[in-house]
Every structure is written in structure tokens, then in C-alpha cells.
Amino acid sequence: MKEQLIKLEQEVLQELEKASRKELNELRVKVFGKNGLITNLSKGMRDVPSENRKEIGQLINQTRSLLEEAFAKKEQEIENAELEKSLESEKIDITEPSKDIKIGALHPTSDIIDKLTDICVDMGFSVVEGPEIETDYYNFEAMNIPKNHPSRDMQDTFFITDEILLRSQTSAVQAREMEVRKPPFKIVCPGKTYRNDSDATHSPVFHQLEGLVVDENISMADLKAMLSTLMKRLYGEDTYIRFRPSFFPFTEPSIEVDLSCPTCHGKGCNICKGTGMLELLGAGVVNPKVLEMSGIDSKKYRGFAFGFGLDRAGMLLNGISNIRSLFKNDIRFLQQMKGEKK
Ligand code: PHE
Known about the structure:
Blueprint lengths: L1 H16 L3 H12 L4 H7 L6 H40 L18 H15 L3 E2 L5 E3 H4 L24 E3 L4 H10 L4 E10 L10 E11 L4 H16 L5 E8 L2 E10 L16 E10 L1 H6 L8 E8 H9 L12 H6 L6
Parallel strand pairs: 1-4
Antiparallel strand pairs: 2-3, 4-5, 5-9, 6-7, 7-8, 8-9
The structure holds phenylalanine.
């Protein structure tokens, strides 16, 4: 019996040595299966005289565990070899040039937000944000536009309830910031705004950039210098601006700022409809009432504010004629924006 076991052990180990994964599985059945060699030996214990049973039983068990270990070891070896092979064959050459990766570009509106805020940060402004779902108070009342005031009609607002709305202007952020900041401060706030308006140059969702400076001795001259620098840096040194009187309840005096057309440089073209100028933003000296409502001493401090239509500004920078292109989410449109550097 002992010899039989040793022989079995040697034969199995030999076969195991050169076995593939498939052969290993077959061999496992042959040895440990229902009718396997070891199994049959165990079954044969019945015929072993009882005085030898203990010894033979031990020997069989020894052989079984030795073989089990050998099988496990072999299996691990096969697995390692397979892994190595697949690592080798699936090796990725990261230095190889890629075939066809489609790269889009920054959306023109994101691009203009980045450019404008970068310039403003250079000038010492902090960038802040406010909520798009806003209260009537911040959007209107704190901006000196009381309920039922006719100037509310300047903006066709989406109301959610009587008191909650989709902000129609980033000016709402002015009041929020004035409440929490101590003058002097300079902030710009880019973000989405909403009005019930829709044609080639108006979209129900659009973007504005609000600017607010509060300090002592602020005047219209500061506003002009700041906006002029901003526009020159954005559209080029030969850009100039023009002020026209206007009206906003939250600024006094109020102005509309026109920009020399970046396409024809003031000569007149189809973009500026032959006028050489483009209407770009509203601005003015902050109405003292607005300062007072937000807890700022209007005897000591003054401010200027401006509100910029960002989509329009981005369209001008990139020669886009229809505002809807900005919201269509068409990858071909974005790809045309690639490499635009101005
Ligand atoms: N909030 C105004 C608008 O949306 C623009 C503006 C901002 C005007 C700040 C003056 C000062 O039309």
C-alpha cells in the first residue's frame, strides 16, 4: 500500500509539472474526483485489516494533503504566467500618438467670463456669486424698485411665487454683498439671469456680469476709467467707449455704455448696423437710497455699478450672429471656437 501511494504521488506530481490549465483540471478530477485515485484508495480502506487501518489512513491523508498543496501551487503558477502574458500583450504605449480624439473648446460664454473676471481680479476685484432663484426683495426692492413700480416692466420676470423669482439681473447680488461687506470693496459677479424674452439677440436664459465698487469719493470718472480699461483689455487697445444718459432705479445718474464695434473698429459694418458702436452695458453711480437700504452710510460712501450682457460680449468677441447658437449644445459649433485667441 505504501509503495502504491508513493508511486501515485510521483506519477501525479510528474503530470502536474507539465500540465496546462485544462490538464490541471482534468488531473484534479482524476485524482480527487468521485472515482478519483485518492477517493478510491480511501474507499478501499474497508478491505484493510483493522490493525493497519490507522497507519494506512494516515498515509492516504498525508498523500492527499501533499497533492492538494501541489495542485494549489501549480494553479497559482499558471495564474501568474497568464497574468504576465496578458500584461505583456496588452501593454499600452503611452508615447504613441493617439488616433482620433475630438477636442472641443471652451464655450464662448465661459470664455468671456474667464477673460472678464481675470481682468477684474487684476484690478483688485473679488469674484462672488449669488443664487439664481432669488427673492423679490433682493432682485427688486433692495434695488429701489418697489412693488408695482413701473420700472419693473423693463424686465419681463419669471415669477415662481409672489416673493420668489428667477433673478432677472445680477444686480440682486449687489444688495446681498452690501449687507455683508464693509466698504471699501470691489466685487464682480458673473452668472445666469432670466427674462421672458426670445429672439435672435435675446434668450430667456442669458448671462450678466455685475460690478460694484463702494468707497469714499467715488465718481463717474472712476467708472469711466475702469470700464474703458476693461474694454481695451478685452477687445484691443483701439477700443473706445461712449456714455449715453439712461435710467435705472438703482443708479443716479445712470448711463448706457456703448463700445466701438470690435469688428469694424468704429467704421460701420453689418454687425453694428453701420453705426460703428454697440450697446453693451448699463451702469451708473449707486443711488444713495440703495446704499442706505443695505446699511451703508451714504454720506460717507459712494459707489458705482455696472451690468454687462455677457452673451452679447462673447458673441462680439467670436463673431457669432445668433444668440441661440450659444445654447444649442452643438459640438460642431464649439469646435469652431477652437484656437480663438483675441
Ligand atoms: N441690472 C441692469 C440690467 O440688467 C444693468 C445695470 C447694472 C445697470 C448695474 C446699472 C448698474 O439692465
